[in-house]
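hey so u asked for the seq, here:
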Amino acid sequence: MKNLLRLFFIAFSLTISSCKISYITNSFNSPLLRNKGDAQLNTQIGISGVEVQSAYAVTHNLGLILNGQIIKRNDKESEQGTVNKKQTLFEGGIGYTEKFSDRGIFEVFAGGGAGVVPANFRTIEWTGPGEISYQRYFIQPAIGFFNEFIDFSVVSRLALVDIGPQKNWFYEPGVVLKIGYRRIRFIGNIGFSIPFRKYDERYWDNFPFTLSVGIHFNFGKRKLEE
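ran it, structure tokens below
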């Protein structure tokens, strides 16, 4: 399994190095907050780079999230050789959480953030720097189920990404799985990033999916009624 993951990430690195990709979506932060005082921290690594995610329940129904993403990669340029570039994103959001059963939670988060991406524009001539700042805004509803050992979320995110001369909308569905016991769990995250605009109408490209794994920590006040 370890060798398989290593081969996958090598193949991914080669893919983004050979393509002019600007936007790689981050993983989903779907905390499934149980009650007031519930606090969480995720650390993950994968296609979306190195990520740190946090969440805190201000009340039984009101939650906050903060996400950070860093990707370092080599882009092959025809005249300059291999150029080191990076993507970063730091964002926050506020959300509403409601239990609909003893084991089911509905949540919706909305927010935005900013960062830096490679200025890889496909259909226009760009004479600016190799990296450019960008903004992203999102709304992310999810339905989740939990018990003593598993948290499982089905996420459906709508994102507006503003890079340079063009804004693009993306539909980003996915799933989040946390497996473990109480305070520490394994977390896995997989999803897709689907642009609304047609390929020949876009100035910049995106990577079509995301995959990451990591560790989930719960260190707040959680009523362990599972």
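The helical segments are 2-18. Confidence is low (pLDDT under 50) at residues 14-18.
lmk if thats what u needed
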